[in-house]
Amino acid sequence: MRGKVTIQQIADLVGVSKFAVSRALAGKSGVSLRTKEMILKAAGQLGYFKEQSNTPTPELYDFESQSLSGTILVLFPNIRYQNRESLYWGPVFDGISARLNQKGLDILTLTEPSGDRIFTLLNPKAIVGIVSVGTISSSILLEIKRLDIPVVMVDHLDPVVHCDTVFTDNVSCMKELVTKLISRGNKSFQFVGNIKDAQSYYERWFGFRSALDEFGLEHKQIPSLITDAIDSIEVTLPDAIQKHGLPEVLVCANDSIAEYAISVLKDHGYDIPGRCAVTGFDNTNDKLPILATVNVNKGLLGMRAVDQLLRRILNRSGSYEKLLLHGDVIIREYNAATKDTVNNVNV
């Protein structure tokens, strides 16, 4: 519980002073943004922010039959590829918007501000709930927590704020995809994508490793392929291939990374997917030779996030939930003679 977690424990875990921890937890200046994020995540992991509730679970209300009014804030991260124009996040937002329109609720979209005071120009009393989309900084999430507004996160998890979350079932879907590739005789794999960039990437990495472990395939992951930024893959990938050789399959964290990897490999003269199969996730690009991916119902992610938020608004107490939506694995048949992917098979 929060009362059992001390400032000193947090300081020892992060390796900073008690003064820095106190400033960060209070939302005051004097601590760099990177250090503040480390402190907040460490505090969350230790349970500093967990609420102690002795109140019994209230009667559950059927949100479908309840009438709500007010404004729902949809918060996007201040990251270049996570916005409404994205092939992934755009449909998620459309799902959120469609469901809110069905419920007669107003919608306000906001890009994560660079400062800590998220509601400086807003009236928090007018906001009845928040849907955060993608990776939001711990500092902003702490500001939201202090406002005591119900929150549902889409595709993100942070120990600073305990709330309902909605994800694709990344572990099961990636495990299924890799299992199908193993069944086709593939034995040499490498994962591509920084697994610290997003919770979903880490979960997909875990599903990838689970499939290999289950079938007893030895795997020596090239560290740079799961730790370096995507922008550096132009150098990282060729260097890794030169040192370790080209695997039979590159399993990428999403289709965008797969697209980038294919471009780099082709620039270096490799026949894709003839020489090396490249797989993705999210099914945002079906025009490149991405041999396998997972079709994620992005609009449904947004809709279910709204449904979960409405339940939480009407039922403030009780355990938080992590909702998982299953995706469909797509394997594309490759014609070596024409060097085309000639058929899409949903399996």
Describe this protein's structure:
The chain is of the alpha/beta class and 347 residues long. It is built from 11 helices and 12 strands. The strands form 3 sheets. It has a 6-stranded parallel beta sheet with strand order 2-1-3-4-5-10, with helices on one face. Helix 4 links the parallel strand 1 and strand 2. The chain is globular. 39% of the residues are buried.
How many strands in all?
12
Kindly report the spatial arrangement of strands forming the biggest sheet.
Answer: 2-1-3-4-5-10
- Top-tier CATH class of the largest domain: Alpha Beta
Q: Based on CA inertia axes, which overall geometry fits? A: globular
Helix content: 25-40%
Largest sheet: 6 strands, parallel
CATH evolutionary superfamily of the largest domain: Response regulator
> What's the number of structural domains?
3
Keyword list:
3 domains; Rossmann fold; 347 residues; six-stranded parallel β-sheet; alpha/beta; single chain; 11 helices; 434 Repressor (Amino-terminal Domain); 38% helix
Write a brief structural summary.
The protein is of the alpha/beta class and 347 residues long. The protein has eleven helices and twelve strands.
Give the topology, please.
Blueprint: H1 7-14, H2 18-26, H3 33-46, E1 71-76, H4 89-103, E2 106-111, E3 127-133, H5 138-147, E4 151-154, E5 164-168, H6 170-183, E6 189-192, H7 199-214, H8 224-227, H9 233-244, E7 249-252, H10 255-267, E8 277-279, E9 292-295, H11 298-314, E10 322-325, E11 328-335, E12 340-346
Parallel strand pairs: 1-2, 1-3, 3-4, 4-5, 5-10, 6-7, 7-8
Antiparallel strand pairs: 9-11, 11-12
